[in-house]
């Protein structure tokens, strides 16, 4: 049994995950293995697109689950690559079954329209990280994301960059370009605060247009809060008072320390700016 606390809920939610269960090609399969043709481009080239979502209140239609936004992102990539779309009814059917066991779903689509859905639990100590922040470390410019406008199965750069964490005390890594500008983390978009404004790198620098990023921008614009979408240069990041990263699973996690080759940068994980996002993850 796993008990997960969500910051958007007042009660505990209990999940009974099945260790080896996934949905593939309109079938629920209880196994640890997925059988693919040895010539499958998804296996050979990572030729898939995927999205990862957090299910709130066991409902795909919950406004925070953002089901339609996740499907639209998949559809955009499939149309861009001229790939076959899946039967979306089957995709929803598989998601509805797996959400009974898992709070996080990963939906993968192959070029020929096959759907593959897996589930997992929320990260350990998530509430603690949201409250007190984490340590992050910088990578080098070698770990550039492939096709950054799309979430493809070729995730090698982000995976390799994340492995750096295992040899340090950091829990996340920040990807940079060849000039040292900060782009995004291996799993999410960056946010910072200074001069009474929120700052985030623009999509034009080659970062993933995260669904949670769009959610936050919409929320802040409704509150007429200033958002600066500018390049995060080495000079700019030194002036930020607080920074964090976001994705659809962890919501928003402050970063209190960024390890660099020439010393660490410290930020305030308890900054008052976070009160502006207080209601963002509430039903």
Automatic annotation (TrEMBL):
Gene3D superfamilies: 3.30.470.10, D-amino Acid Aminotransferase, subunit A, domain 2. It comes from the Bacteria. GO terms for molecular function: transaminase activity. InterPro entries: Aminotrans_IV, Aminotransferase-like, BCAT-like_C, BCAT-like_N, Class-IV_PLP-Dep_Aminotrnsfr. Keywords: Aminotransferase, Transferase. The keyword Metal-binding does not apply. One of its GO terms (cellular component) is cytosol. Belongs to the class-IV pyridoxal-phosphate-dependent aminotransferase family. This is Aminotransferase class IV.
């Amino acid at each position: 049994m796993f008990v997960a606390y969500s910051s958007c809920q007042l009660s505990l939610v209990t999940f009974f995950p099945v260790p080896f269960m996934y949905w593939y090609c309109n079938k629920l399969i209880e196994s640890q293995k997925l059988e693919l043709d040895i010539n499958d481009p998804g296996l050979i080239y990572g030729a898939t697109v995927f999205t990862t979502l957090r299910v709130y209140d066991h409902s795909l239609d919950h406004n925070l689950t953002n089901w339609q936004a996740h499907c639209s992102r998949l559809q955009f990539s499939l149309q861009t690559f001229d790939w076959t779309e899946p039967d979306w009814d089957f995709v929803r059917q598989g998601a509805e079954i797996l959400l009974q066991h898992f709070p996080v779903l990963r939906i993968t689509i192959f070029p020929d329209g096959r759907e593959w859905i897996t589930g997992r639990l929320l990260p350990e100590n998530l509430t603690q990280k949201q409250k007190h922040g984490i340590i992050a470390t910088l990578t080098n410019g070698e770990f550039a994301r492939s096709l950054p406008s799309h979430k493809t199965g070729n995730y090698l750069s982000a995976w390799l960059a994340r492995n750096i964490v295992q040899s340090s005390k950091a829990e996340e890594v920040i990807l940079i370009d060849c000039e040292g500008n900060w782009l995004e983390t291996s799993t999410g978009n960056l946010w910072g605060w200074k001069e009474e404004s929120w700052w985030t790198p623009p999509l034009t620098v080659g970062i993933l247009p995260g669904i949670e990023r769009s959610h936050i921008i919409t929320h802040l614009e409704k509150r007429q809060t200033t958002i600066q979408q500018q390049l995060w240069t080495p000079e700019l990041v030194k002036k930020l008072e607080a920074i964090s990263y976001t994705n659809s699973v962890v919501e928003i996690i402050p970063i209190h320390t960024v390890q660099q080759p020439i010393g660490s940068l410290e930020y305030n994980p308890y900054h008052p700016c976070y009160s502006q996002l207080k209601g963002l993850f509430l039903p």
